[in-house]
């Protein structure tokens, strides 16, 4: 057993994912017989949500197995503290549980989401769903999956209690079909096939006649969903001695094969349709590019040119495609483009879709409702292009003067070094510039040294300024003031909590000192058992974990002792409103 980053020492993750996997161990690594699935078994002392797990799976795939047809699966096991029970685990981990169920079986997901949930005790979840033989047939499977998550993965005892109730069906219910069953996507076809296989579910609840739609023409075909027909497998022309086996398929499957009644595999899309050496992807095209700043969601089919400056991690879909997204700029604006690539072509695509590459792209621009951005999602072709940035010029007869400039020394406001600002101003023909950073003057020396270095310290006027701040003398920093002096008995205290809400979170530590005549005369430092697990983020911030508070007294015992210890002393805290809000609660 080794630490995660000892096994994957070259793996680069974002800060959040890296912190979650920092104290995680890899217990074993296996690969399937067909060498297409790599399973990484990990052990962690804290919960890691599924979103982070999937993010790390994608990072391992893209960084360590780029261009290879292999699926990465991380199999988690959590060693949780005694603070956890099934109820607290569900409260903290329910988003990941739902994600697991949705990926495994949409019916189980709907039972948990749409059922009436309550806890009979800390270990038993009660779910009430509509009285349906269909749901009853899934009861054991739901319990099995939830036990795998709670007990096998998390080591927490779990019991499920199912009950059923009769619910009056409305007209809306009878005509409703779940979004995941609509349309002609691979996922929808898969879900409908699962439902049909159960008990003719789609035949009784198919108000949109989805199963009877001809895929090619869009018209309903005269197929009864519950009927099947026999399709004979093609026979070898050289031999008629053995009769070919018969395959029974449903009319739903037939209607999903382009209206022909016979299924055939999807033809692979070519990566390049042109022998022209300048074509990198798709087809050859001609035309002049337009500025990205002139593009909007109604621009339609356009040609653009620019440099790629950011490549996103590829996303592998269930259909075997890879979605490659990249950002391109022509320095008037930027846009995201994406192409769909088979595993076999992934390495070729990565050879030119990289930061710094100049490309010419023809494609259709539209508004992406998921990313909430105008993107180029349908690309006809990508060609080589040597893109040169055109520098901006200031051709005004009378040059402007920049009087409100924020350099990178202005936190959360400026991002550019003062040296670059000076060079640009001189290039534009400006003769003066004012620096006005937020409450700091660190840019002044760099600016003065650079002006002297390039020989413009005499003809370029640098105005040294600053955004200053006034103290709000109307804000009250003392409450319940009674004329006490500074030498009176004072208690300076601080608390650590499980979160930032006094209504929802709990105190886990109280630390305080008594001061009189500027000397510490007494101390108090005590842990508090919050009765719930301490979130991992809080452990990172405070270094307090469940093992440190599990044997501590609850707040109902600690708080009266703390208040008695304080007595009539003046109470002082760094963030007094926050700390005292937990005490008052």
List the helices and strands and how they pair.
Blueprint lengths: L1 E2 H4 L7 H7 L3 E7 L5 E8 L5 H15 L6 E8 L7 H19 L1 H9 L1 E6 L2 E7 L2 H4 L2 H15 L5 E7 L5 H4 L11 H14 L1 H4 L23 E5 L13 E5 H5 L23 E4 L17 E12 L3 E2 L4 E9 L4 E9 L3 H7 L5 E11 L4 E12 L17 E4 L12 H10 L4 E7 L4 H11 L7 E7 L22 E8 L9 E10 L2 E9 L8 H7 L3 H4 L5 H12 L3 E3 L3 H9 L1
Parallel strand pairs: 3-4, 6-7, 14-16, 17-18, 18-19, 20-23
Antiparallel strand pairs: 1-2, 2-3, 5-6, 8-9, 10-16, 11-13, 11-15, 12-13, 13-14, 15-16, 20-21, 21-22
Helix pairs in contact: 4-5, 4-7
Short summary of the structure?
It is built from 18 helices and 23 strands. The chain is α/β, with parallel strands linked by helices and 585 residues long. The protein has six domains: 77 residues, GMP Synthetase, Chain A, domain 3 (2-Layer Sandwich), CATH 3.30.300; 80 residues, GMP Synthetase, Chain A, domain 3; 57 residues, no CATH class; 106 residues, OB fold (Dihydrolipoamide Acetyltransferase, E2P), CATH 2.40.50.140; 66 residues; 95 residues, Ribonuclease H-like superfamily/Ribonuclease H (Nucleotidyltransferase, domain 5, 2-Layer Sandwich).
Computed over alpha carbons, the radius of gyration is: 33 Å
Tell me the overall shape. flat
The chain-level structural class is: alpha/beta
Helix content percent band: 25-40%
Mean pLDDT across the residues is 83
Number of strands: 23
Q: Strands of the largest sheet, in order across it?
A: 11-13-14-16-15
What's the tally of helices?
A: 18
Strand content: 25-35%
Instruction: Output the CATH topology of the largest domain.
Output: OB fold (Dihydrolipoamide Acetyltransferase, E2P)
By CATH's scheme, which homologous superfamily of the largest domain applies? Nucleic acid-binding proteins
